[in-house]
Structures are given as structure tokens and as C-alpha cells.
Design brief:
Blueprint: H1 11-15, H2 20-47, H3 52-64, H4 66-80, H5 83-103, H6 108-120, H7 125-136, H8 140-171, H9 174-193, H10 196-200, H11 219-247, H12 252-274, H13 282-294, H14 305-333, H15 339-361, H16 369-384
Helix pairs in contact: 2-3, 2-7, 2-8, 2-9, 3-6, 4-5, 4-6, 4-15, 5-6, 5-9, 7-8, 7-15, 8-9, 8-12, 8-14, 11-12, 11-14, 11-15, 11-16, 12-14, 13-14, 13-16
Length: about 400
């Protein structure tokens, strides 16, 4: 059924355009290892006799390593096109995960090296996809909806990925989960890089600049805000475990983050349906961030498990809209010819935040004050440091 005149384009409208479905599915498939590998690494390390603490450190190394590699591979994509860094990154990831699947994790030096290589080699599929949206879609409204769709599908990576790794590890072995993560990276990357828009895309001409995408003054506080946004999600995972123990409800540890992610997908769908037809202003980003922070307040109350689950869906519903507008703002700030690198920095900021939020929430007992504080700092940075600026129309 066609949308009413003047209504924002729907997800279906975006996916009907040529190449869009292939690019999105390939990107999600290629990024599935980001959700699978941390859980598979923990299970594999424990199966080889390592402690949970050691296994968690390995998973943390994997989580942080893309923060180093994605901006570099993104810059390479802006200089040389998308296929080269995607093939290079996918090859590194597949090789490293395959070695872990075949050799196991008994040797910690070998394991740590492979883990760092697998993380740092993460191919720039997210940045590549966001660089391609304006080339395969007809107007700014479709690009904004595509960004919301992309942000929503990231929730699938971090829900389906761990669930798939756990299921495969239980049915076969943790090594099988690592092997599937390697295959998914290769398959998704090949499907993406061989699509015609990816093969023919070239970044806009750029001025030689060592800072690249980081040159604009407003870019750095925005990235700092995204670190705190990522920290809210990282702290939530620990808070779910702590709440499950407190409520004597083991199911809550997995269901709470899943409910947050499911609400994010729903929030993305609604945001795409009711987003304004005009360009986003920086004050819109600050407002959504402030609402996101306020939505964490009910979680401070001593709620029973079912109400806690419902309360976690409040910030979850705003996570994707906030990430979408932040992504649009970031790419609008990026100097010409640095779009893929800019999204690499976005991914780096989010992953550093995820790792930091997890690391900080543990010693503080998994209290919901940690994601609340991180969300408040995110809103403060966006409200005070990025308020001036142009409207955000496209990527």
C-alpha cells in the first residue's frame, strides 16, 4: 500500500530500490561475527580450561580491536574504493577465526594475537553501506529512512549473533561457532563488495589532511558523546546479570538486553514512520539524547522482574532514533571524501563505549546508575558542544 503524500518513506520503500536489499543483507551478514565472536570466544576459552576472567579479557580484546582498525580501513576505502579494504579485512577476520577454530585457545599468546587480528580486520561494511545510500536512493528522505533501517538492523546483529553462537556451540562446539562467524564474514563481504554500487563508488575529492574525518571541531565532542552512548548498552548487559541474581530470575540476564534491542527495532520502525519531512537540526539530536537519559530514571526504582523488563524498553525505544540522528549528524560534519572513515570513527566510539561500560559496571555491582550517568553525559555533550551547526539532510 503506498504511503500517503508527504509521509516519510517506509523501510519497504527503501528496500524496493535496486541494490538496496542486497547491500543491507550482505552488510548485516558480514557483521554477524561482531555479535557471534565474543560469546564464541568465551565458550571456547572455557572449554579449553581457561577461567571466566581470562575468557572475558579475550572477548574484551575482540570488542576493542575494531576501534583501531575500522577508521584505518575506512580511510583506505575513501582513498582506494570499497572492494580493497573489504576483501583485506574479511580475509584477516576469516583467517584469524579459522585458526582459533582449528587450533583452539590453549595457547594464550596465539589466541590473543588472533583475537586482535580478527577484531582489527573487521571490514568497513557499515561505513561502506552508509556511503552508498545516497548513490542508490533518489532523495534525502529515503536516505534518512535508510539510516534508521541500518541502525535498526544493528540490533539484529547483537541479538541474533550471540543466540546463534550459543545454539551452535551447544549443538556442535564453540569451534563450530567461530568457523561460522568466519564464513559469515567472508560471505557477507563478498556479496557486498561485488555489488555494482560498491565496485563503482568513489569518494568525493578530499584535501590532504592527516586528521581526515576528525578535522571539524564539532566532530570530536560528537564522537565523545557516542562513546557514552555505547557505554549505556555495555553497562546494561552487566546490569541484566546483576538484576537476575538479585531477583533470583536467571532468565532476566538474557531477556533484559534482548528486550532493550527489540524495543530499539520497534523504535526505529516508528521513527522512520513519523520522522519529520524536514532536515534534522542539531537541537533535535540534543533533545532525543535528553529524553534517552530521562528514560533510564525508572530503572533506579526497586522494580520486580516483569516491570524491570518493561522499564528497560523505554530507553531501548529511543536508542535507534538517537543513533540514527547522531549518524546523520556525523556524516554531515565529515569533510568531503571522508564519509567511510567517519563512520569508522563512529563504530570505534560505540565499541569503546560498549567495552568501557561493561568494564565499569562490573565493579559497581551492575547498578542502573551507570547507564543513566553515561546517558546523561552523552546528552550533556550533545546539548552544549554540538548545538550550533547546519541542518542534517543526508549522509
Amino acid at each position: 500500500m503506498p504511503a500517503p503524500p508527504g509521509a516519510p518513506p517506509s523501510f519497504r520503500s527503501v528496500l524496493r530500490h535496486r541494490h538496496c536489499s542486497r547491500l543491507l543483507i550482505a552488510s548485516v551478514t558480514g557483521r554477524l561475527s561482531l555479535g557471534m565472536a565474543p560469546v564464541a570466544l568465551i565458550l571456547a576459552a572455557q572449554a579449553d580450561g581457561h577461567s571466566l576472567a581470562t575468557a572475558s579479557v579475550l572477548a574484551a580484546l575482540y570488542g576493542i580491536a575494531p576501534a583501531l582498525g575500522l577508521p584505518l580501513l575506512g580511510r583506505l576505502a575513501d582513498h582506494r574504493g570499497l572492494p580493497l579494504p573489504i576483501y583485506l579485512g574479511a580475509g584477516l577476520v576469516a583467517t584469524a577465526l579459522s585458526v582459533l577454530a582449528l587450533a583452539g585457545t590453549a595457547s594464550l599468546p596465539l589466541t590473543a594475537g588472533c583475537v586482535l587480528l580478527a577484531g582489527a580486520g573487521c571490514p568497513p561494511l557499515e561505513g561502506g553501506l552508509r556511503s552508498l545510500w545516497p548513490t542508490v536512493l533518489p532523495d534525502d528522505a529515503h536516505v534518512r529512512t535508510a539510516y534508521t533501517l541500518d541502525s535498526s538492523t544493528q540490533e539484529i546483529v547483537y541479538v541474533a549473533g550471540p543466540a546463534l553462537a550459543i545454539a551452535l556451540a551447544g549443538a556442535l562446539s564453540p569451534a563450530a561457532a567461530l568457523a561460522l562467524a568466519a564464513v559469515a564474514t567472508l560471505a557477507g563481504s563478498l556479496a557486498f563488495a561485488t555489488a555494482r554500487p560498491a565496485r563503482t563508488w568513489q569518494a568525493a575529492p578530499r584535501n590532504p589532511d592527516r586528521l581526515g574525518a576528525l578535522r571539524p571541531p564539532a566532530m570530536r565532542p560528537l564522537l565523545a558523546a557516542l562513546v557514552f552512548l555505547g557505554a549505556t548498552a555495555g553497562a546494561l548487559d552487566v546490569a541484566g546479570i546483576a538484576s537476575a541474581q538479585k531477583e533470583n530470575a536467571a532468565w532476566l540476564a538474557g531477556v533484559l538486553p534482548a528486550a532493550f534491542s527489540a524495543a530499539g527495532i520497534l523504535g526505529g520502525v516508528l521513527f522512520a514512520r513519523f520522522q519529520p519531512s524536514t532536515a534534522f537540526r542539531p537541537r533535535d539530536l540534543a533533545l532525543i539524547a535528553a529524553l534517552y537519559a530521562a528514560c533510564w530514571l525508572p530503572l533506579l526504582a526497586p522494580l520486580p522482574a516483569p516491570l524491570l523488563l518493561a522499564a528497560a524498553m523505554l530507553p531501548g525505544a529511543l536508542f535507534v532514533p538517537l543513533l540514527t540522528v547522531a549518524s546523520l549528524t556525523l556524516t554531515s560534519l565529515a569533510p568531503p571524501g571522508t564519509s567511510t572513515e567517519a563512520v569508522g570513527w563512529l563504530s570505534s566510539a560505540m565499541r569503546l563505549g560498549l567495552a568501557g561500560g561493561t568494564a565499569l559496571a562490573g565493579p559497581l555491582g551492575g547498578h542502573f546508575a551507570v547507564p543513566l550517568l553515561a546517558a546523561a553525559l552523552c546528552a550533556l555533550l550533545l546539548g552544549t558542544r554540538t548545538a550550533p551547526g547546519p541542518a542534517v539532510a543526508t549522509a
